[in-house]
């Protein structure tokens, strides 16, 4: 499982890095960025989903591992 | 001032300055969602109002069919004098692509979470000082004596304008906000002292550089060129207009809610960890800001025959109450964990000051309830709400309970 942010959709609403600061940070403009490789564990999946369900721009994606 | 006839049907004759809309717009929007959902009006020279999240979202993200040349509904349409589109009078909010992205990129780093977090201690100190000044009075005005003092001082400090000009500064803000509907000639006359004041401040910052947003703008460059003074002044005016009554409305509405919902107040006092989630629900439920666009060209859109230069009233507060997107949309749920609200807009014009506004709202509420853990509305019928595109309580008498 991997979480990504679509940089074209992200507008810097700032919800992801407030909700899950261990998974998301922000760049110089305040847009959300995934910390590290974005690989999710059982422990962090729920937080990633919570951030996803709070993003007004629908910019967060969680990909199932193939 | 002309007296307008009262609205009989908001679906065919909406008016966001009508007393009924100002006092309690939510039932109106719910009614429109069920039977419309895009309302029309001949007022203001013609305009449309989508009441659903879907409609608002489409328009907010559509810069092909709508222009941000002006974002405040009035009787006239702006002409392209001073700074024509795509720059507009207050870049980047009045800018369209592609210039918009350039102007916005300049502004955002100064309002990103990092610099905003650094301002938190001084905002907290300001709130404490205001509460100190209010002393032990039984009745205090949560609007005029608290909420309305916080954002102007924050913006003044951000811009690096002299503290002793506070009264002048507040007067300017008043002129900018209250005069939106005035005739163009009057508006130019009203704006002259503001432009002169900004000219002097910009000049002073040029001669005596310091670490503030004004000097930040003076140092900014587009393709190796410094910004035009009109651009700098326009962006400063934007921070005044967009950064002040918006945030004080949000703070006031949150206080109004807590004063009239003792259970929510008690929970917030007893569970401080709930604050970030509660703040988002305040923002969803009492989103203060409605924006506007102008239709770029005649077209069929959202099933409506829109004409060039028709208004499009962009109701983010209405989108936030749409049951198609929010479960129990008409209920304030202080621990609502899934909350994809659009209080700060959507798409490329997302409120550039959202990080700052959020921090001010959180700190203002934290400090108020820390000082006064129990309070209520002194007289609910005395509360007045601001008309127009920024909604929040103005007169907010609160009784402190001990």
Largest interface: A-B, 17 and 23 residues
> Approximately how much beta-strand content do the residues of chain A carry?
15-25%
Multimerization status? heterodimer
State the share of residues found in helices of chain A, binned by percent: 10-25%
Structural class of chain A: alpha+beta
Describe this structure in words.
The complex is a heterodimer of chains A (66) and B (402). Chain A is α+β, with helices and mostly antiparallel strands. Chain A is 23% helix and 21% strand. Chain A has two helices and four strands, in the order E-H-E-E-H-E. In chain A, strands 1-4 form a two-stranded antiparallel ribbon. A two-stranded antiparallel sheet of chain A has the order 2-3. The model of chain A has no long low-confidence stretch (mean pLDDT 95). In chain B, the strands form four sheets. A five-stranded mixed β-sheet of chain B has the order 1-2-10-7-3. Chain B has a three-stranded antiparallel β-sheet with strand order 4-12-11. In chain B, helix 13 crosses helix 14. Chain B is globular. Chain B is built from 17 helices and twelve strands. Chain B has one domain: Cytochrome p450, CATH 1.10.630.10. At the A-B interface, loops of A face helix 17 of B.
